[in-house]
Design a protein that fits this description.
By secondary structure, this protein is mainly β. The chain is built from no helices and 26 strands. The protein folds into three domains: about 10-180, Jelly Rolls (Sandwich); about 185-275, Immunoglobulins (Immunoglobulin-like, Sandwich); about 290-380, no CATH class.
């Protein structure tokens, strides 16, 4: 814009406030009201537009516009800035025909219209009666920002800032840019970070949505940190196959929606221990008991004498010592009952976790004897 010289430097510029955020662009001075009347065409149709700019590719998903009259037909339009001198060029989108109501209208743009650099948003007055497009007075008027043409669909655009000073309409229109919003990171992750687990537990990874509308989840899992991508899936559990004992595993879940994957979601880890550390410790639930002094099974020969009938009425073998057995053969297992036991005849059983799933199943139990006198040995054949 330009003003006549008057030798007064104090009035060489004028500042107008407007709302500009990462996704919102409005020309209205937020502290001032709109003019009481509205701008429009009388006896003809036409379009009023305002120019917006974005420094990165974006999408317009809503337009906000003010009207001062009701009952008039209009459309919202979006144009690129390929016209002469950056004026409106090609029509990118036009809404359905709407009807004005006094106040502010919020018009969704669906699907969102992609824009990059300069673009225009405006109102098509499709009738021939003033549509009452809201505005504020801006004098002097900036150039290259507000334009009009008549009729609707015209390509000869007039710049308000290069027109007579009677056209001082700062249009009350606002473009909302759609910002990509990937979902939040998942919550309630299981197993817990840093957990120490048995090879058979967990059977799966699990998590819950942390919000933000995820439609699927990128799952990363492996023995390296960061873990490799393994799948994208809609569900919130991921089944694990067999796990290697004495190994640390790393995993990560990145929720995904149409705007992309969540970022900065932490890597979790858990360590799989040995099978032999997965069993519950043997305890004496009945107070004092008859002690086991000697166990023989294959190459195992444990003859350490138990001395405390309250805490040691069992013998447990978690990997050491070990013995190798050949499938299909029968191997005797014998145990000796302490002569000082409190019972004249002891009932003895053995549990062997054949499938190494960390659980003693009923099929993995075998009774050695129902009556082993103190100081004697009971034997059972293990096949």
């Amino acid at each position: 814009m330009s003003v006549p010289p008057d030798l007064n430097n104090s009035n060489n510029s004028k500042v107008w406030n407007q709302i500009v955020t990462q996704n919102l662009y409005a020309y209205k001075e937020p502290t001032l009201p709109n003019a009481t009347n509205g701008v429009g065409f009388n006896g003809a149709s036409g379009s009023f537009v305002a120019k917006f700019n974005t420094s990165t590719p974006a999408s317009v998903n809503e337009v906000k516009v003010d009207f001062t009259v009701a009952g008039q037909p209009y459309q919202i339009g979006i144009w690129d800035a390929t016209g002469p001198g950056g004026a409106p060029g090609n029509v990118l989108w036009t809404s359905a025909t709407l009807t004005t109501a006094v106040g502010t209208a919020f018009i969704p743009v669906a699907p969102a219209v992609a824009v990059n650099g300069g673009f225009f948003v405006g109102v098509n007055q499709t009738g021939t009666t003033n549509v009452g497009f809201g505005y504020q007075i801006e004098n002097p008027m900036r150039t290259g920002t507000f334009y009009y043409t008549s009729p609707v669909g015209g390509t000869s655009w007039v710049d308000f800032g290069s027109s007579p000073t009677t056209l001082v309409f700062r249009l009350a229109i606002e473009a909302q840019l759609y910002l990509p919003q990937p979902p939040n990171c998942a919550i309630n992750l299981s197993p817990a970070n840093g957990a120490s687990l048995c090879p058979t537990s967990p059977g799966s990874l699990s998590w819950a949505s942390g919000g933000g509308g995820p439609t699927s989840y990128d799952v990363y899992f492996g023995t390296t940190n960061p873990p490799p991508f393994v799948t994208n899936q809609p569900g919130t559990t991921y089944a694990l196959g067999s796990l290697t004992p004495n190994t640390t595993y790393y995993w990560q879940v990145a929720p995904v929606n149409a705007d992309g994957a969540a970022t900065s979601c932490g890597v979790q880890s858990f360590t799989v221990g040995s099978f032999y550390n997965c069993y519950c410790a043997a305890t004496n639930a009945g107070g004092t008991g008859t002690m086991i002094n000697d166990v023989h099974f294959g190459s195992i020969c444990n003859n350490t004498s138990a001395t405390n009938p309250t805490t040691a009425p069992f013998s447990t073998f978690f990997g050491s010592p070990t013995t190798n057995l050949m499938a299909g053969t029968t191997v005797p297992l014998s145990l000796t009952i302490d002569a000082a036991g409190t019972y004249t005849g002891a009932v003895a059983s053995v549990w062997i976790d054949y499938n190494q799933d960390g659980v003693y199943d009923a099929t993995e139990w075998q009774q050695v004897s129902l009556n082993i006198p103190g100081g004697t040995t009971g034997t059972v054949n293990i096949t």
